[in-house]
Amino acid sequence: MTGRGWKLPFKLLGIPLSLDPSFALVLPLFAWLISSQVPAYAELLTAVGIEIDGAALSRGIVPYVLGLSAALGLFTSVVIHELGHALTARAYGVATRGITLWFLGGVAQLEDMPRQRGAEAVVAIVGPITSAVLGALLGMLLTTLTMPAGVTFVVAYLAITNVALALFNLLPALPLDGGRVLRSLLALFLSRERATLIAGGVSQVLAIGLGVYGFLSLNLLLMAVAFFVYNAGRAEVQAESMRSAFEGRRVADGMGRDPITIDIDMPVDRFRALRAWKTHPCYPVVDPDGQLLGVARIADAEGADDDAGLHALLRPAETIGADEPLEVGVRRLAASELGRLVVTDARGRVVGILGKADVVRALEALR
Questions:
Q1: Which of 178, 231, 268, 347 lies at a CB distance of 3.0 to 4.6 Å from 170, suitable for a disulfide?
Q2: pTM of the shown model
Q3: Using CA atoms, how far apart are residues 321 and 346, in angstroms rounded to an integer?
C-alpha cells in the first residue's frame, strides 16, 4: 500500500491523496455492479418510502451513468471518512503521510498512532461517526429537496451506504475502527502488547466467520474482506510485538555499522561494477569531506553515460539520526521507497545504514 500508486496533483487540508493500482480495477467493477442492480436498488428504496421508477432508470446508458456516479460518490465518502481519522490524529499532534484509495476502500497512513491513553479509540471512532453523519445529511436532502430520479437514486444509495460503512467499521476486528477502539479500551487496563494480542485474536475469529459466510453465500467481496482482516490483524500483532521489543532502543543499537560510502568523484563504470560483488541496491554518496550528498542506485547506473559522473545519478537520501528511537526507524523503513535509511550524526556524516536485514538481526539479538 505504501510507496505504490499514483499521487493526485492536489491535497485535501494539506493531506496528499493517492490511488493504489487496484483502484483502476475496483472503480469500474463497482460501477458495473451498481449499474446491474439499479432495479433491485430502486425496489429497496421504494420499500423504505423513497419512490423511484426503476424501469425508467434502467433504459439505455442511464444505469451505467448512475453506477459510475454512485461509485465515485462511494469513494468520495471513503475519503471523507479517512479525513475524519486524519484530522483527529492531527489534533493529537500526529501527522498523516497520505490517504490512499484501494481495492477495499481507503486508508489514512498516519505517521504513528497517538500514545495518550484512549487516544486511539477517539481517532478510530471519528471515522464511523463521520460516515454516519454524512449518511444522515444525505438522508435529509432526500426529505427536503425535490430532485430528478437519477440524482435521488445516487443520493439515496450513498446515504444508505455511508450508514452501512459506519456499522461495518464498528466490527471489533483490527484494522477496522472497531478493532482499534477495542484495543484502546483494553489498553486502559492491560499493556498495549497484551491488548493488541487479544484484539488480534478477536479479529481472526471474526475474519474466519466472515470468510465462511462469504463462501457459503458465494460473496467474493466478503471473502476478500475476511482474508484482508485476518492477515492485517496478524500484522498488527507482529508490529506491536516488534514495537515492544524495540522500546527504549535507539537506531544506533540496530543499524549496520561501517557502511560502504561512495565518493562523488567515482567514475560511473567503477560504480556500476559494484553489482558484481555487492548486492546493495543503493549506496550513500559523500563529498571529499565525508558529508552526505544523497544516494545512487546501481540500477540507475546501468544505462548511464560513463562521462556524466555520479552527480547525474544522485537521489535524495532517506536519512535518520542515530539517536532516534529504533521503533521510529522501523516505521520509516516500512514506508521507505528504497528500503534503506542512511543513518547520520549531528554533522551530517554517514555512521550507519538501517535496512530490513538490520532490523531482523536486531530482533534476533533480543530473543
A1: 178
A2: 0.75
A3: 8
Best CA proximity match to 100, nearest among 178, 3, 13: 3
Backbone angles phi, psi at 40, to 5 degrees: -65, -45
Q: pLDDT of 333-357, one tens digit each?
A: 877 777 888 998 888 888 888 888 7
CA proximity to 154, closest of 245, 254, 83, 52: 52
What gap in Å lies between CA 216 and CA 197, rounded to an integer?
A: 29
Q: For 280-321, what is each residue's pLDDT tens digit? A: 778 889 888 888 888 888 888 887 777 777 888 888 888 898
Cell 435521488 identifies what position?
A: 152
Segments making up each domain of the chain, as ranges? 1-170, 172-245, 251-366
DSSP state of 270: H
Pick from 165, 192, 7: which is nearest to 97 by CA?
7
- Grid coordinates belonging to 102: 484501494
CB 60 within 8 A of CB 50: no
Fold assignment, 251-366:
CBS-domain (3.10.580)
